[in-house]
Automatic annotation (TrEMBL):
Residues 31-196 form the FAD-binding PCMH-type domain. The gene is murB. InterPro entries: FAD-bd_PCMH, FAD-bd_PCMH-like_sf, FAD-bd_PCMH_sub1, FAD-bd_PCMH_sub2, MurB, MurB_C, MurB_C_sf, Oxid_FAD_bind_N. Signal peptide: none annotated. Pfam families: FAD_binding_4, MurB_C. The lineage of its organism: Bacteria, Bacillati, Bacillota, Clostridia, Lachnospirales. It is an enzyme of class 1 (oxidoreductase). GO terms for molecular function: FAD binding; UDP-N-acetylmuramate dehydrogenase activity. Belongs to the MurB family. This is UDP-N-acetylenolpyruvoylglucosamine reductase. It comes from Roseburia intestinalis. The keyword Cell cycle applies.
Amino acid sequence: MNQQFLTELKAVTAENRIFTDEPMKKHTTFRVGGPADILVQPKGTELAAVIRLCRKYDVPYQVIGNGSNLLVGDRGIRGLVIEMLSKEDEICVEDDCITVGAGMLLSKTANRAAEHGLTGMEFAAGIPGRIGGAVVMNAGAYGGEMKDILTAVTVLDQEGNEKILSAEELELGYRTSCILKKGYIVTGAKIKLKHGEETAIRARMEELKKQRVEKQPLEYPSAGSTFKRPEGYFAGKLIMDAGLRGYLVGEAQVSEKHCGFVINRGNATAADVRTLMQNVADIVEEKFGVRLEPEVKMIGEF
Ligand SMILES: Cc1cc2nc3c(=O)[nH]c(=O)nc-3n(C[C@H](O)[C@H](O)[C@H](O)COP(=O)(O)OP(=O)(O)OC[C@H]3O[C@@H](n4cnc5c(N)ncnc54)[C@H](O)[C@@H]3O)c2cc1C
């Protein structure tokens, strides 16, 4: 890594928020991934300065939220990882609208909505991502998705300039948006909900939490649903019907509780997970003629 780059980085971001050779397994819910050359947690306007610095020194960067939809390679990530974190005060509720920083957890945002008697975000309370990652993925569950509640998003473009995009401009679809394609970084979002009853909102959140605990292997590290839902099918059912329940590669395993999840039984490597995913997709295709596409984003060097 260019020393001059590191020196200038320390001038724009506090040194205690810069980490070198940082194991990415500490920053992903899969608990898998080799070291990032540098991981930085910029605050506020520091982000634009960091982006400009990366451009000046031609250093590649990768943005992450809570790492809950990521498989990072065992050899880690060259260049910079920008981890988006937001402080508690980056949620502002006004009437039925919430303005929130990209680094805020969905669960915290949904809880704040409930506190203010705002309904519409219950679906997101159990999704372990941050707002930025949820916008990128158009995260959704139990009949709701980010598309239903987003009105606008603030982003930084590759030059570090701020833009405001309306929900329509985000091209939100099933687990997709235009953010990655355009190389934007989400810095904040505006969400519109409806007035409701806090007790009913909390009851719905509890009910959905119960369903997750019952059906999902939350006791193991994972990245949630490993594959996207193919049209007309359920990935988990196809995998189960292919006889792959509990299928193991190293310490990566098709969950016995929910075949749509690949879990890390302890010390799985990214190579284990990737091989398992390829084998599963091949076997399912051979049996049913349906190709499973990963929902999990693979980044870094494998
Ligand atoms: C147990 C479990 C259950 C889950 N259940 C669900 C579910 O019900 N529904 C669902 O949709 N998902 C689910 N997921 C997957 C995951 O939580 C979501 O995809 C979530 O939205 C990812 O957010 P994140 O902050 O963790 O993003 P990350 O995983 O860190 O990143 C995801 C992608 O977004 C990009 N990104 C992240 N932040 C930004 C930003 N600020 N600007 C630009 N790009 C950014 C990253 O580069 C990456 O490409 C689950 C995962 C787990 C582990």
